[in-house]
Amino acid sequence: MSFRFPARWEGRDHGPNPLSEALAARKAAGADLLDLNVSNPTAVGITFPEDWTGLLVGDSLRRYDPDPKGLRSVRDALAGYYSDRGESVKPDDLFLTAGTSEAYAHLFKLLCEPGDTILVPRPSYPLLETLADLAGLAFDTYPLILREDAGTVSWSIDRKSLTAQITDPSHTFRVLCVVQPNNPTGNILSPEDAAWLLDIASKHGFAVIVDEVFADYLNTEARTALLNSDGPLVFTLNGLSKLVGLPQLKLAWIHVAGNAADTGKAKDLLEWMCDAHLSAGTAPQLAAPELLRRRGEFQGPIRERIAENLQALREIAAANSRLKPLWPQGGWCLPVRCEGIQDDEEFAIRLVEEQGVLVQPGYFFDFEDDETIVISLLPEPEIFREGLKRLSLSLD
Ligand SMILES: Cc1ncc(COP(=O)(O)O)c(C=O)c1O
Fold first, then answer.
1. What is the Cα gyration radius of the chain?
2. How far apart are CA 353 and CA 33, in angstroms?
3. Is the pLDDT of residue 333 over 80?
């Protein structure tokens, strides 16, 4: 008798999509490919300091002395990192996890009943829908409004629409997610939107999750941290994956803020959850304080790379009026409007097949128009420039 998988997995198709098929065919044919989509920091020709390897072994083989919240030495180092950013964070309010996705999984369990709906921005990071799904949650998006004014791009929360969603009695919302800088728009919350959000979270009794994995990559002086709200529960996430470009270390953290009663309960439950998993590995934890201290050695070259690629994009976009980058306030990627393409997916497939250039169609991120694609700012500069030139040619 064959196994009866849960009904919720019925009809799921996690197979290839037309773009991944076109990509596989191109690779199988051995044809060249300029990947403007690469976001793996270890695969973009940035040399990591030789002695970082040594940091990873150290004492980790000899000692296992777990703390459910993560080693105190790491949480102290993290408090130091926030203090460098001008933010006051207590080690006791931090919980280490094996990556940000695990942090989301813990928080969804902590905050939601099965079937509750989480709210995430639109456009935003596509994995959030999968993570909600895996946690047995429903998923809804709240729109960000794009404003363009003489080359300046800004995104803000569509407050009217979000208010209507929150007050809709057919859903139970307990969690609203913010990603800042957002992936892929690169926007951060304005102070007004942040204050408004905390206010409605308080009024309607929901918690806010702020994903800050790109917080150290800002093209602006402004920063709207929600780390120290003493009102509604605010969980801020970050990790070594972007902070020092080492996703393979699988070390991330949750910072808990909010009023004393709610944070007390949330911290007890989180500690219990973390204790059940003890998933943050000793090796990355022992390396973390030194990696955090030396983060500039990774972030400097990455910032230079981003600046160089943004400059190339500026030049190429200046020569093609149909290529409209939506300039980001931060992050590692950005959306580019390709005027007149009519179908972002079809265009992305055509770029792979005819030009050997890989970009992501905007619909992956829930862009509502059909003219937006998303590119990474990390590719090696020659690849980035050549890929953009070919992309620009296909618009002529
Ligand atoms: C917004 C956002 N959050 C989280 C992550 C993943 O972080 P981690 O490697 O810690 O799971 C990504 C990866 O691209 C991301 O874009």
1. 22
2. 10
3. yes
If one residue of 127, 187, 246 were mutated to test the ligand 1 pocket, choosing by the most ligand atoms within 8 A of its CB, it would be 127
Nearest alpha carbon to residue 128 among 169, 173, 174, 177: 177
* Residue range 250-276: mean pLDDT, rounded: 97
Residue-level pLDDT at 87? 92
pLDDT of residue 180: 95
The percent of residues in the chain predicted with pLDDT above 70, rounded, is 99
What pLDDT, on a 0 to 100 scale, did the predictor assign at position 172? 80
247 lines ligand 1 (CB under 6 A): yes
Residue 64 φ/ψ, nearest 5 degrees? -130, 110
How far apart CA 140 and CA 122 sit, in angstroms, is 9
Q: Are 344 and 370 in contact (CB under 8 A)?
A: yes
Range list for CATH 3.40.640.10 in the chain: 52-293
Give the class (CATH, top level) of 17-47+297-393. Answer: alpha beta
Q: Is 331 in the pocket of ligand 1 (CB under 6 A)?
A: no
Tens of pLDDT, residues 288-306 = 999 999 999 999 999 999 9
CB 271 within 8 A of CB 69: yes
φ/ψ of residue 110, rounded to 5: -65, -40
Instruction: Flag whether pLDDT at 384 surpasses 90.
Output: yes
Expressed in angstroms and rounded, the spacing between residue 100 Cα and the centre of ligand 1 is 6
The verdict on the CB of residue 179 being under 6 Å from ligand 1 is: yes
Question: Mean of the per-residue pLDDT values for the chain?
Answer: 94
Fold of 52-293: Aspartate Aminotransferase; domain 2 (3.40.640)
Label residues 54-84 b or e (16+ Cβ within 10 Å = b): ebeeeebeeeeeebbbbbeebbebbbebbee
pLDDT tens track for 145-161 = 999 988 789 999 999 99
Q: 241 CB under 6 A from ligand 1?
A: yes
Please state at what angle helix 260-277 crosses helix 100-111, rounded to 10 degrees: 120
Count Cβ atoms within 10 A of the Cβ of residue 196 and give its class: 0-12 exposed, 13-18 middle, 19 or more buried. middle
Residue to mutate (ligand 1; options 104, 120, 122, 125; most atoms within 8 A of CB): 125
Q: Provide the CA 361 distance to its chain's centre, in angstroms.
A: 17
The residues of the chain that CATH labels 3.90.1150.10 are: 17-47+297-393
pLDDT score for 199: 94
